[in-house]
Predict the structure.
Amino acid sequence: MSRRNNIIGSLLNPLYLTPALWIDFSDASTITLNGSTIAQVNDKSGNGRHFVQGTASLQPALITSFKNGHDVARFDGVNDELLLGSNTLLKNVSGATIYVVRKWAASPTSVQTMFKISTPSSAGRAQIQGGNVSGKNAIGGRTLDADSFVRVDSSSSVTTAWRIQTGVYDYANTDLFQYINESLDGSTTSYQSGTATSNTDSASAVIGGANGISYFNGDIGEVLVYHAAHSADQRQNVWNFLRTKWAI
């Protein structure tokens, strides 16, 4: 392979930007199955943030070779969720970017959460969701543990097509941006105070719900979290990788 192709290959790999969390349901080597359901999915970032579900009835199904030949996790919208305990995601950081590759089974009529990182009290530090305000896509969170939750709703309604939903949290500059695929779809430039997040561990992180509520009904292919507010070029790098991989 030429040097140019090596460079291009590295730029299309999310590790190039050093993720804090990388969950990839298409990578069978990271999945522990309980029959056809997922008991554990391991973090590919190298940070050891593995998500588990010990109760069989709460485990999402693994659907093999489903999207562009890749496996996905299917959440039933009733009680399926994968859990990570106390962790340092979004602890004392000046920015964050979260990418979720997902597909709803049906347009939601109430809030459904695909991914949540909690404060020490389990309140939402960052959430990627939908079903808010007449079925709109939404992201939200808080900078400091004591802050009120702020949500950004999109101008577009949730669809049942595959999408890359992205939240860019620029805490230092009080900005919050939501992207659906590669298009800006909701933002605020007054996202609380211009400071780093609280220097506290998160109580938990959840894939497929909000820790006992707001369960997601649909499929998830991949979740990536970075401890930086990505620039346009950095977002494009990750989007190119995900769009090509998942044929979005």
Remarks:
- The chain has a mean pLDDT of 93.
- The first strand starts at residue 21 and ends at 24.
- The chain has one domain: 18-246.
